[in-house]
């Protein structure tokens, strides 16, 4: 038995953040009823890479039921209200206030169902200054400062996945589980709010502290760590780049003697501590690169393994499937075709999933849900 079996989740959701939250609940056994417009979740149209489905939609909507309704109509409002009266969790990421204006404020829902846990996800929260501000992932990356500390020197860059959306979905999932635990003690539901900006702002704690109290926030460092050296990418003779991460002085000495073949490098005053190495990073990186560029990548990695130095190959998305740590699940897309997707990252080792739930067509369960909830 999965931990959330028996729980009912109603999700008025689209795109990434809220669907990721409800996906995690579905993977834990909850029944997730996804409410869509007649044209469907906008993420259905992002691409068709997943055997005809959008890659985003196939990933985030495994194992859900889809019902089409318009909560602004009397009929649609009645059906949504009937579902929420029997639901345990309500997740929504429409614009702040949209559901409240349609008669679904938290106060009204708490009267209807005092045990309901509601989670609102938005770009910038419900504060009056930002409630109507559109908060898409890349825009939040920019406004939160994430882009300013990412990319390369002189060329800031976005994080290559929808990191603010994903972070908001993960945060909302944790908050919902905490609220369900609290409900088990108090018998009362909760009203939760998660914003993409709030999540990104917390992630910016270290740069923020440096900006407010230190010497300024770290600048974009490319494939280098801003405060540890050597920690970054180095070239090899076969054109591959290998990232190495030296965490302490013992590792630094082993890197010099056992990997680079130059024990004297560790004893130089300019490189005698991490602080010194960061201050002299450019010269240090050039000296290391001059050695690694004469080695084949497999030999370099073999020496790093033997010296117990952490490293990582600079892989592309196509390399994922060959990685020893990579796990997949088989999912049926909305057209019934099987596709292989990355597996959920947290699993019960006694019951590792091999398949994911099917991806629903738009409104696939609408009639069945209307009959079930009598509206």
Automatic annotation (TrEMBL):
Question: Which superkingdom heads the taxonomic lineage of this protein's source?
Answer: Bacteria
Write the record's keywords in alphabetical order, separated by commas: Transferase
The record's GO molecular-function terms, alphabetically, read: CoA-transferase activity
Say if the entry is tagged with keyword Ribonucleoprotein.
no
TM regions (residue ranges) = none
Coiled-coil regions listed in the entry:
none
* Matching SUPFAM superfamilies: CoA-transferase family III (CaiB/BaiF)
> Record keywords: Zinc included?
no
The record, for Gene3D superfamilies, names: Crotonobetainyl-coa:carnitine coa-transferase, domain 1, formyl-coa transferase, domain 3
Q: Which residues form the signal peptide?
A: none
Q: List the protein's name.
A: Carnitine dehydratase
